[in-house]
Amino acid sequence: MDERKSCENAKIERERSHIFCYNKEMFEMTKLNSALEKFYLKTEIPVELRDSVLYSIEAGGKRIRPVLFLELLAGFGIELAQAHYQAAAAIELIHTGSLIHDDLPAMDNDDYRRGKASNHKVFGETLAILAGDALFLDPYYLLASCDLPAETIVSLVRELSAASGSLGMVAGQVLDMLSEGKTLSLSQLENLHELKTGRMLTFPFVAAGYVSGRESQIEILRKVGEKLGLAFQIRDDILDVSATIEEIGKTPGKDVLEDKSTYVSLLGLNAAKKELMSNLNAAREVLRNLQDFDSAAVLSIIEGLEIE
Ligand code: IPE
Ligand code: IPE
Ligand code: MG
Ligand code: MG
Ligand code: MG
Asked: Which of 38, 95, 126, 284 is 20 to 30 Å from the Cα of 306, by its Cα?
């Protein structure tokens, strides 16, 4: 995608979503988008696979995970380089794969994603499954090729796999499927949300700790990410019942339709909103413990997740 088209997409994204408005300078978003696409522009990749993958990547999305990672690095005073954009892209690629699979008929059976038809509606289930597979595996090639110290890359690979695989997102998706039609306890639901969404949102925090050489602060960073990650899925549950398709770019009301266990179904809308605020506040509280860190940008991202 050329630079102009990248900018247009980012603009449309901002207009579509007053629900999360991130005013990052277009230049950095362009660098991130080009890191996301570059791998798939290789000529040896079958054109059908490339089209299917790029369709979902270029559909946009809030990019909150890579943006958090980049803002955390900047907050630690790190000058952003190509390797940082590649590591940022790695998490967004896995996240995008998880959305493609999440929408499949065998999972949430959702026809819309990021304001467009879901991947399988355009390319068919076979290519959608395989595009998801590619998006889960290629990021490790990207990470391993980054111009970062080898021990940092090993830490990133370990943490990204833990966040996304059987110790994280995939485990959460299994619990989510098994929870359909059931009433979970609050602690079971919290565990489900922490796994399916929380771990992928915690990764940017932990990864920023390794990349910036702040190993001593990683447990603080992890805690902030966990609070923010849980808040993010509670917010997603709230938007499912309160937002329009234009605002969220996906079908609202799906959770009720699929009889999902969500914070809204378990606690009701008002209590879910309180849980959202309490987790966002907890994230802000823990964030204060970080040393030598300019928190302004991360605090503004957290504020952007509030719902009245
Ligand atoms: C949606 O994630 C799925 C969840 C984990 C809640 P996002 O809300 O970050 O989706 P995009 O990337 O903006 O499309
Ligand atoms: C999905 O949660 C989380 C993922 C791991 C993709 P949801 O099923 O609630 O996400 P949306 O609402 O379809 O984006
Ligand atoms: Mg789902
Ligand atoms: Mg879904
Ligand atoms: Mg949802």
From this structure: 95
The number of distinct structural domains making up the chain is: 1
In which domain, by residue range, is 198 found?
Answer: 29-302
Determine the distance separating the centroid of ligand 5 and the alpha carbon of 290, expressed in angstroms: 31
The minimum-distance atom of ligand 1 relative to the CA of 201 is: 5
Task: Name the residue of 92, 94, 108 to mutate for ligand 2: max ligand atoms within 8 A of Cβ.
Answer: 108
pLDDT digits (tens), the chain, 308 positions: 343 344 344 444 434 444 455 556 666 788 999 999 999 998 899 999 999 999 999 998 999 999 999 999 999 999 999 999 999 999 999 999 999 999 999 999 999 999 999 999 999 999 999 999 999 999 999 999 999 999 999 999 999 999 999 999 999 999 999 999 999 999 999 999 999 999 999 999 999 999 999 999 999 999 999 999 999 999 999 999 999 999 999 999 999 999 999 999 999 999 999 999 999 999 999 999 999 999 999 999 999 999 98
The enclosing domain of 134 has a CATH number of 1.10.600.10
Nearest-ligand number for the alpha carbon of 172:
2
Rounded to whole angstroms, the Cα distance separating 133 from 126 reads 11
Per the domain annotation, does 21 fall within a domain? no
Distance from the alpha carbon of residue 42 to the mean position of ligand 3, in angstroms: 31
Q: Is residue 84 part of a domain?
A: yes
